[in-house]
Amino acid sequence: MEQDFFLRTANNLVPVEVKSKNGKMESMKALISSDKYDDISFGIKLKHGNIGHDSDAYTFPYSCSFLVKSFLKQRF
User: Fold this and answer.
1) Residue 56 host element (H or E)
2) From CA 65, how far away is CA 33, in angstroms rounded?
3) Which neighbouring-strand residues pair with 50?
4) How far is CA 8 from CA 24, 37, 48, 50, in A?
5) Closest alpha carbon to 42 in 52, 32, 53
6) What 3-state class would DSSP assign to 17?
7) Which of 8, 24, 32, 71 has the highest CB neighbour count under 10 A?
8) pLDDT digits (tens, 9 = 90+) for 22-53
9) CA-CA distance, 14 to 24, in Å (whole number)?
10) How do strand 13-18 and strand 43-47 relate by DSSP bridges?
11) 53 Rama class: left (phi>0) / alpha (psi -120 to 50) / beta
12) Cα–Cα distance, 57 to 1 (Å, whole number)
């Protein structure tokens, strides 16, 4: 599996993928669904596009990546 980087909150380890195209997040989905990683329950994808949410992944455009820290602080 390949993951671009991780962010740590008080209760979660958050996998982050940076996409140049709107590709699939197979590695992130595998980490989220794995029983080996109890502290991974959702992920973040940075891409060219709109803000969004799809089951267990939050999407931010590159231009809003500076908001990820506040999003995690308020939400989790």
Assistant:
1) none
2) 25
3) none
4) 23, 13, 24, 24
5) 32
6) strand
7) 32
8) 777 888 999 999 999 999 999 999 999 899 99
9) 17
10) parallel
11) beta
12) 17
